[in-house]
Inverse folding.
């Protein structure tokens, strides 16, 4: 018997091997949905809102801090606008959404192209909801990086919207038995309806009020935040210094820093940040870093360079497979790779999961876990990631347990809370095993998120033999 393996978990291992072979897609999915999951530690809060979650809060003045939003429903030409730092001209995007303040600054001609969100007709509303997810075959990486975020416009500057998306995520994660959420957000751009900036203390207050609400506490999902900054902007170094100071002042909630933004923009190369990080670490205690690296379909040394920055975790690590020295160094090591299968597939880093490097990392001892990245954009959840992994890579029970516990072991929550969460996961897993071995019926899933139903319709087919 391997050290640490109980007799029950060995029995479960055999049970799961048989179950996988006999289960229908719906049965396997239901099993993975009910399985206690350690956490989702690669999660962007603004990218993790489903369309209707955005809609509900953006159109509710009483709950959203008093903002009214207008969205672009017509592209009639008024006058030219230049592209922004993301290489996009948001004025040319349907469903580009602005607050009253920005709306009033538009020319009358341009105002005629916008409609108040709450006044959209049914067809326009559906198109608005579709505009913030990747739901069409031609929509891929460019649509995601160059259009989706730009469309959200001023809604990304409203901390009440973030609070709402946070609560909706916590409630959704409770339903699929996720214990911990470590989510990334940016707070420096938050603005009151009149354009006055929020202080970081004010944003922290709104987030912590959300976490203290009865609705949030009822979920039993533990949450911590990473502050993210866009890596290729001209003032990214200064942003990093400010972000460091904000995390330092609110370490009870903010547990790490992340660098985001497409990696094929050379201006955000990892080593750009080394002098700044060294300067910051000379002045105060280190802040844990989880950094996007290797989300690329060509070989480079970004993962090695990112480890040199002091990162403890790598987001995606997709091209690690093409950097043998770093891959060897990471085997059985302390650094974890956060794997996002659906994201990599939809943003076209791989054409098929059959060639994804995840199983090679998992089975050569590179610490990995599964996470969702921007689940609102894919209309998916964490169970979908586990389902795809089991289906494509034939995961064993032991591998599932390791993926789940890695999400907590490598979290930035701090030692005491980490141990408490690990214990909770162990206890819940033990109960889950006993229920499965005793054939206790699995709870019915009321609604699937759309991704899995189009990926594998049999999962959602309630009439098939279950
Ligand atoms: Zn990400």
């Amino acid at each position: 018997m391997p050290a640490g393996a109980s007799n029950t978990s060995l029995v479960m291992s055999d049970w799961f091997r048989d179950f996988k072979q006999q289960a229908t897609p719906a049965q396997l999915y239901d099993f993975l949905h009910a399985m206690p999951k350690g956490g989702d530690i690669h999660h962007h809060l603004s990218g993790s809102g489903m369309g209707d979650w955005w809609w509900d809060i953006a159109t509710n003045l009483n709950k959203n801090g008093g903002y009214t939003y207008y969205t672009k429903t017509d592209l009639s030409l008024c006058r030219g606008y230049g592209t922004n730092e993301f290489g996009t001209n948001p004025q040319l995007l349907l469903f580009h959404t602005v607050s009253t303040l920005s709306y009033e600054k538009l020319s009358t001609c341009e105002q005629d192209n916008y409609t108040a969100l709450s006044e959209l007709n049914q067809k326009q509303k559906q198109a608005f909801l579709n505009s913030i997810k990747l739901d069409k075959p031609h929509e891929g990486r460019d649509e995601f990086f160059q259009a989706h975020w730009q469309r959200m416009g001023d809604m990304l500057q409203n901390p009440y919207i973030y609070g709402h998306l946070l609560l909706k995520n916590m409630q959704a994660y409770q339903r699929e038995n996720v214990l911990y959420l470590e989510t990334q957000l940016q707070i420096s751009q938050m603005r009151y309806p009149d354009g006055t900036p929020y202080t970081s203390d004010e944003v922290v207050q709104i987030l912590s009020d959300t976490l203290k609400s009865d609705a949030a506490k009822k979920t039993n999902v533990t949450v911590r935040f990473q502050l993210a900054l866009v890596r290729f902007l001209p003032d990214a170094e200064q942003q990093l210094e400010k972000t460091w100071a904000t995390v330092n002042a609110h370490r009870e909630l903010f547990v790490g820093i992340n660098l985001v933004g497409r990696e094929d923009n050379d201006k955000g190369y990892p080593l750009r940040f080394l002098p700044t990080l060294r300067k910051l670490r000379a002045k105060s205690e280190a802040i844990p870093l989880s950094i996007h690296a290797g989300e690329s379909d060509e070989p480079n040394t970004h993962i090695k360079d990112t480890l040199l920055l002091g990162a403890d975790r790598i987001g995606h690590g997709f091209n690690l497979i093409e950097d043998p020295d770093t891959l060897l160094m990471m085997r059985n090591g302390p650094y974890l790779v956060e794997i996002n299968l659906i994201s990599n597939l939809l943003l076209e880093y791989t054409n098929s999961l059959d060639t994804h490097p995840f199983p090679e990392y998992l089975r050569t001892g590179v610490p990995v876990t599964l996470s969702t990245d921007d689940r609102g954009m894919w209309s998916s959840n964490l169970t979908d990631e586990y389902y795809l992994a089991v289906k494509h890579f034939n995961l064993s029970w032991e591998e599932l347990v390791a993926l789940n516990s890695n999400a907590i072991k490598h979290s930035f929550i701090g030692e005491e809370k980490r141990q408490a969460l690990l214990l909770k996961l162990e206890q819940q897993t033990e109960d889950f095993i006993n229920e499965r071995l005793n054939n206790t019926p699995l709870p019915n899933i009321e609604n699937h998120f759309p991704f899995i139903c189009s990926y594998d319709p049999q999962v959602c087919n309630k009439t098939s033999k279950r």
